[in-house]
């Protein structure tokens, strides 16, 4: 009796330890890979982040080349002869608007049209930061939010669930009119459309709320407190991770994060399953032997 209990716990401990070692190994291998693969780009940027002034002047250079044809040489906007706009004034839109518009590939627009579409970004994050610093230097505007503004990772499991529920209610009252019930988007007047907002990176959701792109209203902190913004994002994120039909929205965290995820969870669960099968078959054999 005693002996068999001891053997069981030893057996179990051994299996647990094996799983932990395996997981640690996978995480280590994954992070090493991500370090190596991002090392090349980050070493280039390390030298360029000296002072804000430099960032602003670097941003101004990029702006003159890629943006000034529509937004004017000083970001003041350009009107066409019939009063339409090639590009609106960017004074006061803030770094958050630039990060959203350029980061989601909406800007630079190929040609002025109905609505700028999201597409792969044409600039690196460093260049986007420089452009944002330049625009923010024209007039104060919303800054790029920090991860702590939109992440619920620090909350307890229960608080996270509550945040998601609150977020769902906020979404229902504020967003479904345009974005539809599951955030799948819908048509807007004058030929525009509210895009699907599933799988959009949390930072860009927060920035869209702050800056109100195109026909979307902006949700200032008076309309939606920072905490309410965070909750909506938690809700949208939960839609992406809880889909029952196999679609798994990683939300564009980038190839490294997604690769790491696939590495740890994908391969990890396969190995884990193999270990489980092995453990099971030996245990049932042993049972038969003692029976
Ligand atoms: C071909 C013309 C064109 C070019 C080039 C262009 N834009 Fe725009 N931009 C527009 C138009 C038109 C709008 C407004 C319509 C919209 O938001 O969809 C706009 C809107 C924006 C906004 C949002 C302003 C707000 O009120 O929130 C930002 C920020 C912006 N542009 C930044 C840039 C930056 C940075 C570049 C260069 C990398 C750039 N644009 C290049 C035409 C252009
Ligand atoms: C009046 C209609 C309207 C309402 C209400 C509205 N949106 Fe939008 N939203 C839009 C439109 C239109 C766009 C597209 C803007 C563009 O392409 O420049 C947009 C864009 C977005 C984007 C960017 C998606 C992408 O592809 O990058 C996000 C995220 C977003 N909305 C979230 C929300 C959330 C969350 C709410 C509620 C708190 C909300 N919106 C309320 C009309 C709306």
UniProtKB/TrEMBL annotation:
<keyword id="KW-0472">Membrane</keyword>
<dbReference type="Pfam" id="PF13442">
    <property type="entry name" value="Cytochrome_CBB3"/>
</dbReference>
<feature type="binding site" description="covalent">
    <location>
        <position position="67"/>
    </location>
    <ligand>
        <name>heme c 1</name>
    </ligand>
</feature>
<keyword id="KW-0249">Electron transport</keyword>
<feature type="binding site" description="axial binding residue">
    <location>
        <position position="179"/>
    </location>
    <ligand>
        <name>heme c 2</name>
    </ligand>
</feature>
<keyword id="KW-0813">Transport</keyword>
<keyword id="KW-0408">Iron</keyword>
<comment type="subunit">
    <text>The cytochrome bc1 complex is composed of a cytochrome b (QcrB), the Rieske iron-sulfur protein (QcrA) and a diheme cytochrome c (QcrC) subunit.</text>
</comment>
<keyword id="KW-1003">Cell membrane</keyword>
<keyword id="KW-0479">Metal-binding</keyword>
<dbReference type="Pfam" id="PF00034">
    <property type="entry name" value="Cytochrom_C"/>
</dbReference>
<keyword id="KW-0679">Respiratory chain</keyword>
<protein>
    <recommendedName>
        <fullName>Cytochrome bc1 complex cytochrome c subunit</fullName>
        <ecNumber>7.1.1.8</ecNumber>
    </recommendedName>
</protein>
<dbReference type="InterPro" id="IPR036909">
    <property type="entry name" value="Cyt_c-like_dom_sf"/>
</dbReference>
<feature type="binding site" description="covalent">
    <location>
        <position position="178"/>
    </location>
    <ligand>
        <name>heme c 2</name>
    </ligand>
</feature>
<keyword id="KW-0349">Heme</keyword>
<dbReference type="GO" id="GO:0008121">
    <property type="term" value="F:quinol-cytochrome-c reductase activity"/>
</dbReference>
<keyword id="KW-0812">Transmembrane</keyword>
<dbReference type="InterPro" id="IPR009152">
    <property type="entry name" value="bc1_cytC-su"/>
</dbReference>
<feature type="binding site" description="covalent">
    <location>
        <position position="175"/>
    </location>
    <ligand>
        <name>heme c 2</name>
    </ligand>
</feature>
<dbReference type="InterPro" id="IPR050597">
    <property type="entry name" value="Cytochrome_c_Oxidase_Subunit"/>
</dbReference>
<feature type="binding site" description="axial binding residue">
    <location>
        <position position="71"/>
    </location>
    <ligand>
        <name>heme c 1</name>
    </ligand>
</feature>
<dbReference type="InterPro" id="IPR009056">
    <property type="entry name" value="Cyt_c-like_dom"/>
</dbReference>
<keyword id="KW-1278">Translocase</keyword>
<feature type="transmembrane region" description="Helical">
    <location>
        <begin position="260"/>
        <end position="279"/>
    </location>
</feature>
<keyword id="KW-0677">Repeat</keyword>
<feature type="binding site" description="covalent">
    <location>
        <position position="70"/>
    </location>
    <ligand>
        <name>heme c 1</name>
    </ligand>
</feature>
<feature type="domain" description="Cytochrome c">
    <location>
        <begin position="54"/>
        <end position="240"/>
    </location>
</feature>
<dbReference type="GO" id="GO:0020037">
    <property type="term" value="F:heme binding"/>
</dbReference>
<dbReference type="GO" id="GO:0005506">
    <property type="term" value="F:iron ion binding"/>
</dbReference>
<keyword id="KW-1133">Transmembrane helix</keyword>
<dbReference type="GO" id="GO:0005886">
    <property type="term" value="C:plasma membrane"/>
</dbReference>
């Amino acid at each position: 009796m005693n002996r068999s209990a001891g053997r069981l716990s030893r057996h179990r401990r051994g299996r647990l330890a094996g799983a932990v070692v395996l997981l640690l190994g996978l995480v280590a291998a994954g992070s090493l890979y991500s370090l190596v693969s991002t090392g090349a780009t980050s070493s280039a940027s390390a030298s360029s982040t000296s002072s804000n002034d430099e960032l602003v002047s670097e941003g101004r250079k990029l702006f003159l080349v890629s943006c000034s044809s529509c937004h004017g040489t000083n970001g003041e906007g350009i009107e066409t002869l019939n009063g339409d706009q090639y590009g609106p004034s960017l004074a006061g839109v803030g770094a958050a608007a630039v990060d959203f518009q350029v980061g989601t590939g909406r800007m630079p627009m190929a040609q002025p049209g109905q609505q700028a579409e999201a597409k792969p970004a044409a600039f690196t994050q460093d260049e986007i930061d420089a452009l944002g610093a330049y625009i923010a230097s024209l007039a104060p505007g919303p800054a790029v939010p920090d991860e702590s503004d939109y992440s619920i990772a620090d909350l307890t499991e229960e608080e996270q669930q509550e945040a998601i529920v609150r977020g769902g209610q906020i979404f229902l009252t504020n967003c479904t009119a345009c974005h539809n019930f599951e955030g799948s988007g819908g048509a807007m007047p004058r030929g525009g459309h509210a895009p699907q907002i599933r799988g959009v990176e949390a930072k860009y959701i927060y920035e869209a709320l702050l800056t109100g792109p195109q026909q979307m209203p902006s949700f200032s902190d008076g309309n939606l407190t920072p905490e309410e913004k965070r909750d909506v994002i938690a809700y949208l994120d939960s839609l992406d991770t809880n889909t029952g039909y196999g679609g798994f929205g990683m939300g564009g965290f980038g190839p490294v994060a997604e690769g790491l995820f696939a590495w740890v969870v994908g391969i990890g669960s396969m190995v884990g399953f193999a270990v489980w099968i092995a453990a099971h078959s030996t245990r049932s054999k042993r049972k038969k032997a003692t029976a």
